[in-house]
Amino acid sequence: MFEKIFFKKALIVALFGFLFLSMLIASPMLANASSQESYKPKIPLGLDEEAFIVPKDNPMTKEKV
After folding, report:
1. CA-to-CA distance for 18 and 23, rounded, in angstroms?
2. Is 25 helix (H, G, I), strand (E, B) or coil?
3. Which of 33, 40, 36, 42 shows the shortest CA–CA distance to 54?
4. Strand partners, 38
5. What is the pTM of this model?
């Protein structure tokens, strides 16, 4: 009897611990994903700014540079 109760409590504690750790790991990744803003590089003098084209579906971010 005691072993069944102990097993259930241990299982519940392990489940909550797993959920807590999952949230702890996932929250910074989700916070950083939305904060990626597009990056506008400084074109050196003498280079044509119109020739430098960044596709709209693949914007340049600081992480990519």
Report:
1. 9
2. helix
3. 40
4. 61
5. 0.42
